[in-house]
Amino acid sequence: MRRPRFNWFLPKSPDVMAMLLEQSRLTILALEALDDWANGRTPDGTGLRQIEHEADACKRKLREALSVAFTTPLDAEDIFELSRGLDEIVNDAKNLVGEAEAMSTEPDRPIAAMAAELGAGTRRLDQALRAFAAGDREAATATADRAVKEQRHLQHTYRDAMSELVKNENFGEVTAKRELYRRLARAGDELVLVAERIWYSVLKER
Fold this sequence. Notes:
Radius of gyration: 20 Å
Number of strands: 0
Helix content: over 70%
């Protein structure tokens, strides 16, 4: 007698890692748009704001997926925090341009240098996340370390730029530039937090 067949199905989980990597890709594009603005290749932040909207939609989709995912490739809290950190970096970039426009302040050499350093660090984060997704934990942590190291260069640029502001007697310009420099420094700090969260995620997986 033929035995009956029973099919057991587990709930299909959305690919939250793919969503996180897509948000990371959009973060790179946002920082490239910031670099274009900082170097005078684009007149305003229109392109950056459009990318920020796309990244924000990606973040919301990821959060919705986390709420229904049966399993995740790493702890859901870690995915949430990685996504939150990437979102903060993009928001800082968008707000920087908005503040510069509101204060009628053009980007200068330190802003361009810090934007470039932030972009380099963001690309490192993306490489680290993709290594993590591929199962190469060692490459993920090593690349995250390089992202942190590159942000130390940003902090050096920030301190040098702030020192130069002391010599500027134009109070309005000093106030505006100080806020813009600080915004970039905060973005660098957020990038370091994302890199450290990658390290933490790897340690939890061991």
